[in-house]
């Protein structure tokens, strides 16, 4: 039982870290609380709120970027 809680806690931490990097730590924390290891997978697959696709080259770039680092177009 203790092992299970440790495992769940580790999954929770990983999910929150991933969620924070993607700009959505609270949703990630809620997911992790209920789904544990499954939330890690969802967090990995979910869209990054800090990043958008460049309209010119479709690469993922920072939302705040003014110039695309891949194709040098103004975004
Ligand atoms: Zn681009």
Question: Gyration radius, to the nearest Å?
Answer: 16 Å
The percent of residues in helical segments reads: 40-55%
Number of strands: 2
Alpha plus pi helix count: 3
Structural class: mainly alpha
Largest sheet: 2 strands, antiparallel
Q: Compute the separation of the termini in Å.
A: 51 Å
Ligand catalogue: zinc ion
What topology, given as strand order, has the largest sheet?
A: 1-2
| Strand portion | 5-15%
Describe the structure.
- The structure is a single chain.
- With 75 residues, the protein is mainly alpha-helical.
- The protein has a domain at 2-48.
- 53% of the residues lie in helices and 8% in strands.
- The protein has 3 helices and 2 strands.
- The protein has helices spanning 2-21, 25-35, 37-45, and strands at residues 51-53, 60-62.
- It has a two-stranded antiparallel ribbon.
- Helix 1 (2-21) packs antiparallel against helix 2, helix 1 (2-21) packs parallel to helix 3 and helix 2 packs antiparallel against helix 3.
- The radius of gyration is 16 Å and the shape is rod-shaped.
- The mean pLDDT is 93.
- The chain binds zinc ion.
- Zinc ion (ZN) binds next to loops.
């Amino acid at each position: 039982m203790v092992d299970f809680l440790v495992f769940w806690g580790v999954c929770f931490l990983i999910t929150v870290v991933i969620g924070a990097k993607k700009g959505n730590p609270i949703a990630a924390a809620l997911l992790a609380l209920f789904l544990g290891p499954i939330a890690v997978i969802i967090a990995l697959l979910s869209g990054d709120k800090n990043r958008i696709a460049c309209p010119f080259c479709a690469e993922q770039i920072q939302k705040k970027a003014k110039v695309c680092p891949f194709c040098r177009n103004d975004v």
